[in-house]
Amino acid sequence: MDHIPLSQYIFQNGKFSLPLNEIFIEFGDTKSWSYGRLSEYFWIALILNTYERKEGLQRLGVIVNKLHEIAPDLRLPRLSDIFSLSNEQQILFYQELLKVVSKDTLSPLTLIYTYSIQPIFAETFVNVKISIEDRIETITAILQKATNHQSDFSTDIRFIVLYFVYSSGHLQFPEEQKYLLDELKSYPHLEHGDPKMRIIRPFIRATESLFLEGDFVEINEHYITLFWEAISKMTECDLYVISYEDDIENFNVYLERLYEIYGYLTDLFRKISPLDNKMLVILGIATYSYKRLKEVIDYKLQNTIVGRSSVRVLIENYIMLQYLRKLEATHPNVWKEFQEYGIGQYKVIVTKASSSSNIRQDSHVPYKYLEELINEFKREEFIEMDTKYFNKDNIRKKAEMVNEKDLYDLYYDYDSAFEHGLWGAIRESSVLKCNNPAHRYHCVPDLNDEQKLKNVLPDCVMVMNKTVKLLDELYGIPDSLIKEVLDFEG
Amino acid sequence: MRDKNLLLEKICSIQTEYKILLETIVDKISADEISPSILDEISIFWTKNQEIVDLYFRNISSSQDVYVFTAATFLDLDLLEHYPFMLLGDVHILDDQVSVYANVVANCGDPDFLNRAKKQIINSVTNNIQILTKYGNHILILPLRSLNKDHQKLIQKNSTNVFLDLFKDKPKSLEEYFATYKTIDDICSGIRNELEKSLILSDADDPSKTFRERLELALNDDLLSIDGIGPDASKFFAAIYGFIYQALDVILSCATYNIIPYLRFGVAYHYVLFLSQNFSEMKEIMQIIFKCCLARSIYRQFDNTHIQDVDFEEFCAVVKESNFYSDLLSAFPDQSFEKQSAKELHQIVEGKLSEFYCVLGKL
Q1: Residue of B28, B37, B47 lying closest to A110 (CB–CB)
Q2: For a designed S-S bond to B127, which of A223, A397, B71, B74 qualifies (C-beta 3.0 to 4.6 A apart)?
Q3: Is residue A329 within 8 angstroms of chain B, CB to CB?
């Protein structure tokens, strides 16, 4: 399916919405097929499930006619309406049902409509020899088949509903649509793949969905709630996990080659320019990226949330390097300022800590050591504190300035969702979809860390190679070292 | 400070729902007629709440002693059985016998079981309603033994094994047992001599009689004299296997959740003790069994004459204030049979109960 370009969305009140969404008015839940109507017509589904399609439709035809005879005022064959009939009418109808279908066919519904709720129904259809588990299994299997309102199975159920309303005389066709009636009559005899069905099936679905509109009938919310509460309590979550299996052996080789490059550059610094502050800053940033990548590979974090944090840092470091280079033309002191900004951040932290009485000795923040670092750089009192972001340009703007907007749009933004714990990232990484239709496809927390995420290493390599190319531009890396790294394919 | 216990709130609301359900069905059942759909509804009710009950059992017993009144048809309120039950532990549960019956009706091959069990089912239902109405603040009714359906196969397998193990020449299977053993003579000559005394055959068993005499009496028991149950060997199996199954069920269910069984029924107590010897290496299970013996001793020795005029709420308050249970436990620092004979245990319990009666007498 093609995606709709962002430009076609309407941005209003802080969210993007499709113009089409403004036209549609959503059906209330209780009117929807999967939640509201299917529960009402579940008895029809059970009969269709037990018997083959043709035989099932035939038997239901007989049942519908009997139901009209017994309860001529009934407008829809909803189970809630059948339960509202007098005891005599119910007994009579169930007796007729048992002439056409076996007792076990409707037995699964005794799980929901138990003796205290529907005594006549339960007494008539209960079979304790069919275990509770088997009854649950039948209901769940039908939900799987019928949840999609357009499936063959759902359309068959909806045809019976339509047939019921038509045979009660409540559905009239205008003269110009009389031909549809003949088409409709042929429905039970046609296979779903028949070309004629292209017209009949949508007609059935469209018409059936209208029966709950207006004041034709009232929705029985209590019945629907009871249905879903009962089966959701009795079924277990069927959690859906997307698995990613990756062979990362090659990435170890990549890391070894990368180590050789960084070793070469560190040698250059130590032996040729040990006092070159610009080189220290550039190699410092690049080495920080290297260490983040090494952590991912060494600790096999490629499918984890932490892995995404690493990609984000690699991108931010690379953009920062390019940004500092660009700024150098107008700010010759930019490398020093970058250091001051970072150490200034530490100064803020240490100052706050020194005025706090809540410092825990086992905290991961080494306040004393941070103080040493601040003093190492420059005498503490001379460090200007700046809590604003370095040079006030945020990362998106920096990315644009260095022509790396794609890195921001396609990767950084996504990884930021994980860093900030936004719901998209939470849903993808820490919440599992339950595949049980009885639970209405809810989600549950992934406490056991079953959901892995897609491998970050190819993106790490992509960004790292951009960094390596930049280092090559600045310092020159021997072909024997760089070639294998730039040619690497994971 | 925690101001909410969601799980306990849910358990309480389940108790209310269960009471409503039982009240709905009690008028619909009689000694003449119990519809299978009624028992089916009980099973469905607990199936719906199974995960919550399991969660509750898994989380209550770590810091508290939980006692369950189990392996009995009902807690006899007329005989004031609920009073001594409250002397033990922090949480008191009545293992729902109605759900046990519902399970048996659904799973046993005997179509006549429901007819024979009608009276007991009615007793259990009315007893449950009474407890939930009057004593719901102190006693919870939850299904313990019928909760975990996965246990049932395991218990069946082990019960069969234990049963076959009673014989000198251990039959390889039940089929072989039924093919080899037919008459009372077959059983008497086949059973391992050292086990003759250990096998209690009925509630009215008299250990002073010979094994054959006891067996003859037991096999003539009304419950086993049903048409179609077959030769003596089949009756013997029906009697003993049931006791073994029940005892293993109690041990496994209680061990799973670290819950202590409070056993009124002497035969059930005997078999739990007898079979618990198989778990003597498992410290946790043996601690449960030790406390089960304490509970049994309390049950046997508790003198109802001291509580004839004592209000139940008042009784519970005295139990709490007097620290009866922790005081009792402190008399058994090792909580083990190695350093305490059954007789000593009995004597200590007797002493503690005497002290308690004095406190109660001051009311």
Answers
A1: B37
A2: B74
A3: no
